[in-house]
Amino acid sequence: MKPRAEQGVVDARLNVYGVTNLKVADMSIVPKNVGTNTYSTALLIGEKAVMIIAEDLGINSV
């Protein structure tokens, strides 16, 4: 996740720049090479995405 000015594609809330109602939550959002297990990183991204999407939908019980 980088700023749009630095050729980024998504913001901190996983919204794709220039597109409405679209979020991306996969390994492509990592701005640098991952120096750890990619499976763990993918799980972390997925868990954070769930929290962000739940907040956007107004679901507080997650």
UniProtKB/TrEMBL annotation:
Pfam families: GMC_oxred_C
Record-level Gene Ontology MF annotations: flavin adenine dinucleotide binding; oxidoreductase activity, acting on CH-OH group of donors
Residues covered by the Glucose-methanol-choline oxidoreductase C-terminal domain: 3-46
Superkingdom assignment: Eukaryota
Endpoints of the signal sequence: none
SUPFAM superfamilies registered for this protein in UniProt: FAD/NAD(P)-binding domain (SSF51905)
Gene3D superfamilies: FAD/NAD(P)-binding domain
Cofactor(s) the protein requires to work: FAD
PANTHER family according to UniProt: GLUCOSE-METHANOL-CHOLINE GMC OXIDOREDUCTASE (PTHR11552), GLUCOSE-METHANOL-CHOLINE OXIDOREDUCTASE N-TERMINAL DOMAIN-CONTAINING PROTEIN (PTHR11552:SF78)
Family: Belongs to the GMC oxidoreductase family.
Protein name stated in the entry: GMC oxidoreductase
Species of origin: Suillus luteus UH-Slu-Lm8-n1
